[in-house]
Specification:
The chain is mainly alpha-helical and about 150 residues long. Helices cover about 40% and strands about 5% of the residues. A three-stranded antiparallel beta sheet has the order 2-1-3, covered by helices on one side. Strand 1 and strand 2 form a beta hairpin. The protein is globular and about 40 Å long. The two termini are about 25 Å apart. The site of one FE2/S2 (inorganic) cluster has 12 residues, from loops.
Length: about 150
């Protein structure tokens, strides 16, 4: 059991050494710490670790499945990741969207990522990366992959 005062972000990074989840503002404003908790995107800086006990937490470390996830590949290929600090949160926000809405419009992609800040890319490459991953994710689903 983790210290009751620790956030999920602190436990992931400090206790579990899952440093892919990034430490940003700690105020719920930047999205760098986003993870998926029982299917919902949450900001791990605003969730106590004890609240996640026994629940399903997906971090960026959990996405690759023998090979990079289509979102990871698309971000790398299309320049959606530059310094990379925002990338784990962006990718998890995109995954949460695509899990609910497999064929989102461009506006839905923008809206879903609106809580995630990026200082490097100007966002267009990020939106393009998400759009580019949609087809491969659909193929993976049809072949029975759940991620
Ligand atoms: Fe959690 Fe910024 S570190 S939203
Ligand atoms: Fe640098 Fe987004 S790639 S903050």
């Amino acid at each position: 059991m983790f210290a009751p005062y620790k956030t999920l972000l602190e436990v992931l990074r400090e206790d579990l050494n899952h440093t892919g989840t990034k430490h940003g503002c700690e105020l719920g404003e930047c999205g760098a710490c986003a993870v998926i908790l029982d299917g919902d995107l949450v900001l791990s800086c605003l969730v106590l670790a004890v609240e996640s006990d026994g629940r399903d937490v997906i971090t960026i470390e959990g996405l690759a499945d023998g090979e990079l996830h289509p979102l990871q590949k698309a971000f790398a290929k299309l320049g959606g990741s530059q310094c990379g600090y925002c990338t784990p949160g962006m990718i998890l926000a995109a995954k949460a969207l695509l899990d609910r809405t497999p064929n989102p419009t461009h506006d839905q992609i923008r809206e879903a990522l609106s809580g995630n800040l990026c200082r490097c890319t100007g966002y267009l490459q990020i939106f393009d990366s998400v759009a580019a991953a949609i087809e491969e994710i659909g193929e993976r689903r049809r072949s029975g992959k759940t991620k």
